[in-house]
Design brief:
The chain is an alpha+beta fold. It has a single domain, classed as START domain (Alpha-D-Glucose-1,6-Bisphosphate, Chain A, domain 4, 2-Layer Sandwich). Helix content is 21%, strand content 37%. It is built from four helices and nine strands. It has helices at 56-63, 69-72, 155-158, 163-186, and strands at residues 16-17, 30-38, 41-52, 80-82, 94-98, 103-112, 115-122, 127-137, 143-154. It has a nine-stranded antiparallel beta sheet. β5 and β6 form a beta hairpin. The relative contact order is 0.21.
């Protein structure tokens, strides 16, 4: 079982492939079907992936720099990142994302050389989930970045989320991965940005 406020979801069953966008052919979106895991919760899983030449250390240096997320992450222009006064990112590290009306409490739940995961709880609409980024080394020296978002929604909210909103979730995950890929590939190995 997860920590209080961050339940560990069971596996999500079923799957269906969404059509990749012609504008971003390096994405492989996958939206898995919904499966009830408690009497009043429904889970959705969204997966996207991209290929990069950036090594895992550079990818995770960008991801672990929570305070700079608004500088490169899509849809974060008006989001404030509230970090604790002490501590460094690692398992159990907590921080908050705050927008004008809503906030999300975040906790790092996985922190390995090839993966990161944060559990989250959004204030409204009320939902929880886990965002995972995995880096898979490929035989040709490149790396595949996999983002897997597991969303856990109250059943009454699911009725408000139709196919269009699910496609928006996929689109947002793809935008995130595109921005991350650009951010890590635009950086020199020493961490400075390319001219």
């Amino acid at each position: 079982m997860g920590k209080p406020g961050f339940p560990t979801p069971p596996p999500v069953g079923g799957s269906g492939r969404a059509t990749p966008s012609r504008k971003q052919p390096f994405f492989t979106p996958l939206l898995c079907g919904a499966a009830a895991w408690t009497a009043d919760m429904v889970s959705f899983e969204i997966s996207v992936s991209a290929i990069t030449t950036a090594p895992p250390e550079r990818i995770f240096a960008v991801l672990d720099d929570f305070g700079n997320w608004p500088g490169w992450m899509p849809s974060f222009e008006r989001v404030r990142v509230e970090l604790p006064d002490e501590g460094t990112p690692g398992p159990g590290y907590r921080f908050r994302l705050r927008a004008a009306i809503v906030h999300a409490d975040m906790e790092v739940v996985d922190f390995t050389p090839l993966s990161r995961a944060t559990a989250f709880r959004i204030s409204f609409p009320p939902l929880t989930g886990v965002n995972r980024c995995l880096v898979v080394p490929l035989d040709d020296g490149r790396f595949r970045i996999e983002r897997v978002d597991s969303l856990h929604l109250p059943e009454f909210v699911v009725g408000l989320i139709g196919p269009r909103q699910r496609q928006r979730f996929i689109h947002l995950a793809g935008e995130f991965l595109s921005a991350l890929k650009q951010q890590v590939e635009d950086q020199h190995p020493n961490g400075s940005s390319a001219p």
